[in-house]
Amino acid sequence: MTPVSDDTPPARLQALTSRLLTRTATRTHRLVAGRLAEAGATRYHYSLLAAAAEFGPASQAELGRRCGLDRSDVVATVNELAAQDLVRRSPDPADRRRNTITITPAGTRALGRLDAVLADTQDELLAPLSPEERGELARLLTVLLTHHDRPDPGPGEPAP
Amino acid sequence: MTPVSDDTPPARLQALTSRLLTRTATRTHRLVAGRLAEAGATRYHYSLLAAAAEFGPASQAELGRRCGLDRSDVVATVNELAAQDLVRRSPDPADRRRNTITITPAGTRALGRLDAVLADTQDELLAPLSPEERGELARLLTVLLTHHDRPDPGPGEPAP
DNA sequence: CAGATCTCAGCTATACTGAAATGC
DNA sequence: CGCATTTCAGTATAGCTGAGATCT
């Protein structure tokens, strides 16, 4: 009866919400990265295509800020997307430091396919949860994320 | 009024629960690893100390299985713990392939200190959530984790 | 012989840092 | 000058793989 199956974790570890979070995230990441890989893409690809589609032609720096991607990774990812003709990289005449990134029709089509892939994957991920539970999970995670995005300042004005 | 602050993410990205999970986990991991580092430890150290304390003297393989650690990482981590005299590594006379890992008194004291550090860190992590919300978050994550730990088989007996 | 254990060497991918070149 | 943008090179870490030696 006692299920001491030689792989039950220490009670201390099971009690850590941080561990639940990171372990669930690892599996989630594997699932999502795998589904995107089957479609020939990565999270960076999808993020930048989405940003280019939603925020029109924009600089690499702006797209990177919006997606939370590092400048270095933006460069590499735009290289890959441009090589597949999913975005175009052209100099910005108004500010010659910048490249203007524009999504192409092929990029828009690819984005649509990836939208479908990701919608399926979210469903696969959240399969054991009811719609209400899915909403609650998203809400709780959003609270944590926004709380830890702003390091110190509480609500209201910063004391002078 | 419109907060188009140049870093609002694409709507598609904000809609992804997978993204919420992985981003929250990244920040969580940073927080936990940082607090453990201040105490001179890592997640692997804590995991193995906890397993050694809770499951008595045991082989490296068993401790690794219980903690979800790779055999390679167990070797390296036990090296580090043994160098600090937090565990002892001795040959198992009953099965000479194995090393028996035993926590030392110093290891038990270190584990106690790390317990306190991690309790504080969980509180820091979950600060914006009520006790009920903390429980609900842990429950929802557990459902997801156990669902995706078992790849295919549903509840009940596997069809013959 | 199959299979488990321990160890070492090395790999992949994510996320990040530093610095240079260019332009505002 | 300080600051922003793009680019390249390199770094750190987690998690994992392969192979060998030893033993059951």
How would you describe the overall organization of this protein?
Two copies of one chain form a homodimer. With 160 residues, chain A is mainly alpha-helical. Helix content of chain A is 62%, strand content 8%. Chain A contains seven helices and three strands, in the order αααβααββαα. Chain A has helices spanning 11-14, 17-38, 43-54, 60-67, 71-83, 105-125, 131-149, and strands at residues 58-59, 87-91, 99-103. In chain A, a hairpin with a 7-residue loop joins β2 and β3 (99-103). Chain A is elongated. The relative contact order of chain A is 0.10. Residues 152-160 of chain A have low confidence and may be disordered. At the A-B interface, α1, α2, α3, α4 and α6 of A face α1, α2, α3, α4 and α6 of B. Chain B binds a DNA duplex (24 and 24 nucleotides) through residues 26, 29, 33, 43-44, 59-61, 69-76, 95-99.
Poorly predicted runs of chain A: 152-160
- What is the mean pLDDT of chain A? 91
Strand content of chain A: 5-15%
Helix content of chain A: 55-70%
State the oligomer: homodimer
Count of alpha/pi helices of chain A:
7
Judged by helices, strands and strand pairing, the structural class of chain A is mainly alpha
What's the Cα radius of gyration of chain A? Answer: 20 Å
Strand-and-helix sequence of chain A, N→C?
HHHEHHEEHH
Instruction: Strand order, main sheet of chain A: write it out.
Output: 1-3-2
The counted number of beta strands of chain A is 3
Q: Report on the biggest sheet of chain A.
A: 3 strands, antiparallel
Q: What spatial form of chain A do the alpha-carbon principal axes imply?
A: elongated
End-to-end Cα distance of chain A = 64 Å
Biggest interface goes to: A-B, 58 and 57 residues
Domain HTH marR-type (chains A, B): 14-146
Organism (chains A, B): Nocardiopsis sediminis
Protein name (chains A, B): MarR family winged helix-turn-helix transcriptional regulator
Pfam families (chains A, B): MarR_2
